[in-house]
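Batch job 17 of 40 flagged for manual review because the log was empty.
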Amino acid sequence: MSSPPTTLGQYQIIREIARSNDIVYEAYDPLMERRVALKELMLPAGITDAQKVDRVQRFDREAKAAGRLAHPNIMRVFQVASDADRHYMAMEFLDGHTLRNEIDTKGFLPVDRAIEIALEVLKGLGHAHANGVVHRDIKPDNIQILSSGEIKITDFGIARLTFQPNLTMDGQVFGTPSYMSPEQVVGKEIDARSDLFSVGVLLYEMISGQKPFAGDSVVAITYAIMNHEPAVLNQVNHSVWQVIARSLDKSPALRFSSAQEMIDALEHASKQSLVLEPAMPPPGQTIYGQAGAYPVPPPVLNPYGQPYSGGIVPAPVPPPIVYPYNPYQQGMGGALPPHSPSYQQGFPQAPIYYPPPPRQPIVKPETWNFLGKLGLFLLVMGTLVGVTFLFVSGVGEELSKNANERQDAGIMSQLADIFNNAQEDPQTRIQQAEPLIAKLKSPEDRTTEDRQLAALYEMAGKAYLSKNDLANAEDAFKSAHDNDSGNPALMSDMADFYEKSAHGMQSLEDRLRLYDKSIDSWNDAAKNSPLDSAAHGEYLDAEGGVYYEEAYELFTAGGHADAADEAARKGMDAVPDQSSTTYQKLANLDDQIKAAASQYSPLNSG
């Protein structure tokens, strides 16, 4: 949409503030005569009915999670409603900026300020946890610092209501990787202690300007969270560091049990750095308040027996310099300089030396003044020209951006019709969609539509495979992978294709070549699936199954005992579960290969 709607429900929309998975407007509530933030659920074109129901349920879950909370440190939700199939919620309008902006601008915060912000966040979380709400996405972007200095927690979009059924299936992971707890990374059940882990990450980053668990990819970050310990902060005292380290413990049982417990520990630790200066003792007493051993010294008097004004003692005047002999008398008959103490002892005055006049400057002051004014004029004119150029460029860029957005919106509408037209065969829809996708200007929109196109290529590949058209099936699966290279499901399709293709080959060499391609594809699918997920284990188990077929082919062909044994052992290394059927089959085959090899070894021949 090129411009926001004018109204939504009872609210008058002023402007669009932000747009990501949802759209946020600044709006006016005429009934309550107040400014509000209006968040509208955005349903992209081409979404299925099941996906729509899921998005609406999560949107309602967010409204219920935030709406049941009333705390000074939590953004308030006034209303949730729908208008002509448009779902929205009215929220408290927050000015100021996010904590992310504060950290990015300053690099890091003073320790006292960081602790103050963390305490306010913990107070809000304590209220949320007491009402059965786990936020699950505490990060600097979701902490708002108001112009009044108040701290507010925002965005309960993935919050967990402990008293309601969970919308997240086992193994699904929601959150921001750098701030997720170990149990959140692996998709396990989480509670309030996961939010406290995120607060620990938040506090660490505010103080140091660095995240405690760094990495250049999601895999590297999650590995660091699961296996690495953060570097000790030298900016804080030992007590504060102990609080941070405890909140970042890998085990939830060893962290703080509640937000209030962490508040108490952090407040106590922050006071350990305060040092009290001893008061000055009264006259005549020691620093211990008793007269006697260490009296305060009496005031210093001037030569007239009176104290110096204001108690300030002037610095002593240095004695005059006395020359032991006249250096000008040796061989030259000259005299001492007038400032010498011996000048009044009858020595004649030495002739006064006058240095030559200074050279005239190459450039006159009037010329320098003119050049300075000329330079200032040129600087001002250059600035005006630059600002004008930037303004014109910005206007042109904005107009071009709006035109591109309108063009992309029309193209994506056509693509939605193509992708949803199940009556046409996949190959026809591919031919219709590819030219349209090439015209998209937005890289994000092109990536989204490429994934839809990859799904069509996958359908086409499976159709070719059912007809035993292996050449076209391989081309279709490769095109699907090219359009959505990080999708492990497409990699598993390629692996399954190579395995089935191998069964139709006559020569052992061709079958082994396709088995190796299938093994590589299963391994790529496992690498691109979440760690410790069910799909990750299934892909590795399937990889072991292909190793079994390769080892069995080599074993039954004869003369390849070493290669068969190597394939069986690689399969056993690949399978993660030694109790699985695949692992047992590989182990039995390996025993048969070794038994056959020992039977026909040189020691048993003849």
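Reviewer: the log was empty due to a logging misconfiguration, but the result itself is present. The radius of gyration is 40 Å. Unflagging and moving on to job 18.
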